[in-house]
Amino acid sequence: MEYSPGLRGVIAGETSISTVGKEGKALSYRGVDVIGLAESNNYQDTVGLIVNDSLDGASFTKFFTSSYEEICNNKFYLSLFNDLFQKLHPMDVLRTIVSSSGEIDKASEIEQVSRMIALSSFGIASYFDSQNRKLNNEYLVASALLPGQEDVEFLEALDDVLILYAEHGFNASTFACRVSASTRSDLTSSITAGIGTLKGELHGGANEEAIKLIKSFTTPEEAIIGVKEKLSKKEKIMGFGHGVYKIRDPRSSVVKDWVEKLSRNDEQKNNYEIAMAIDKVMKDEKDLFPNVDFYGGLLLDILGFETDLFTPIFVVGRTAGWSAHYFEQREQDTLIRPAARYTGK
Hints:
By secondary structure, the protein is mostly helical. The protein has two domains: 208 residues, Citrate Synthase, domain 1 (Orthogonal Bundle); 97 residues, CATH 1.10.230.10. 59% of the residues lie in helices and 2% in strands. It has a three-stranded antiparallel beta sheet with strand order 1-2-3. A hairpin with an 8-residue loop joins strand 1 and strand 2. It is globular and about 60 Å long.
């Protein structure tokens, strides 16, 4: 049996949920191009497509709205958050909140998914001081994550981020969800496994590292010198290249356009110029392209999120994909149990 480190290139299952296409330079959810989704639809519709194969967000909107309202007024979750948020990283807080929820008896798939997303949204929104929990009908989840935000462009940009993060094949966290599902475990356990896996900086944490890199420089010129020095020392530059895409990450251009559009003050404009300088160095020196995390971290910073909330935002968006893979794996009902090559005595 041939060995492939990290299962690279190994076909570990079948899915009808998403694909990067034969050339590996696009992304579609159930046959619908993700860039088109971001242009014409919202995250509610995207969840409906990924979970129910229908570009109709009505059911998700209904269940998310009721779940989010119930959770925000639930004394147990309020107490749990207040007890944890000063002690743990937000990813640990989200993982704990989600894992504490248990299962909903006789609930439809979309109802279960809506509650999972509402739980994580509550966890992120609770870091803001605003008491305004009014939801925007067009950008429902984005408004839940940014309570009190009235700038529609901010909400639309965040909604696009959630769409772009919603699904991406057999990535590490999704595969972890499928492994859990393959044992006939429950959705809550599988989503919890996904959150734990996404926490690593080589997966979801890349956006946090990218913004730290950008903000470590004060000018584009300083960034050019600094990144070249890092490359000469064989240091890894987070936010570039991708395990699937070899030519470009189609999601990156959407996020970059939003960063350019929403960079309104001198600091934001300078950070954007620094990011572009780093982008050029990586292209010239290593022929590497930015993935969705590089400019994604910069966009989330502009939207007002603290750096340690970047990966939790990823959790909210990706829960749609995790859940769809959970249901697909349960339907296939095949235990995932790969072999190992023994190297011991």
